Amino acid sequence: MGKIRVPYLDSKILRRISRYFIGIGFLLSKFFTKMDFNLKQSGIHEQYNITAREYLSFSFIVSTLVFILFSSFIFIVSGLLNINWGISNGIADRLIPSFGIGAIAFMMIFFQYTYYPKMIVNRRIRAIDKNLLFALRTILINIRSGMPIFDSMVSIARGNYGEISEEFKNIIEKVKAGKPISEALEELAIRNPSNYLRRALWQLSNAIKSGSDVGENLETVIKALSKEQLIQIRQYQSTLNPLSMMYMMVAVIMPSLGITIMIVLSSFPGMSSLGDEKLFWVILLATCIMQVMFMFIIRAKRPSLMG
Questions:
Q1: Burial of 65 (0-12, 13-18, 19+ CB in 10 A)
Q2: Global confidence as pTM
Q3: By the 8 A CB rule, do 50 and 9 touch?
Q4: Where are the beta strands (DSSP E) in 40-165?
Q5: Which of 217, 183, 185 is nearest to 203 (CA)?
Q6: DSSP state of 78
Q7: How far does CA 305 lie from the centroid of its chain?
Q8: CA-to-CA distance for 188 and 167, rounded, in angstroms?
Q9: Which of 193, 205, 263, 275 has its C-alpha lying 20 to 30 A from 60's C-alpha?
Q10: Closest residue by Cα to residue 255 from 279, 284, 276
Q11: pLDDT, tens digit, for every residue of 15-56?
């Protein structure tokens, strides 16, 4: 697993200040019950040595600092430019908008921090799943050719399988340190975010413990994953059909017909404003935004086993 970058989490000063607000982190952990689980699966817990309470208190401190900075900035600028918000009289006319904008900034930063571990988990799942079948087939071929299971794992760790290679490197290090392969596989299965890799690791661990044929168990897992991949591809295909129709309607047909109708109507008396050049630029910009949105939607719907 590569180095994870959480904004300002490596700041010793902010970490020290957040320890004084660990009680707030304890209260927030009652609402964000999956935070500890997400921190462990994302790797933030291991890399930064931080618990859910400490992470939530740190998020609260950073968000509070952003609230103070934004509120102070808006308050000072309103005074310098003599902006009248028309809310109330006196200094309250500057305080209320300043605190309001600061509160919005606080909520945005806080929820961004709380969602960040889950975002990393989702990114890791996609990075693992896209190379999982290739890695498992490589292990199966190596085992069928007479290579020991440990040497097969070493080949995966040294191979170009992205996140899976990084995970198997941790297994190799633990086995070299004296831990049995089955226990190292179980530990990886517990903290790994990918359900498909977890299933394969449990099968490997159980086969090693029971002394059964590892290749046969692994082949069963590969067949199940191949079927799951086909199911995901069919579901993705069924999802693309209505999306393509919607794309044609919103991003192709409506702008074309709309511009044609506007040009025709602009020739009538009293409707010349429809032929304004600025209006056409707005339509072009809206069409480009729609197309980019559809690109992101299609990418988000792509199955994890397809990469």
A1: middle
A2: 0.73
A3: yes
A4: none
A5: 217
A6: H
A7: 16
A8: 8
A9: 193
A10: 284
A11: 999 999 999 999 999 999 999 989 988 888 888 889 999 999
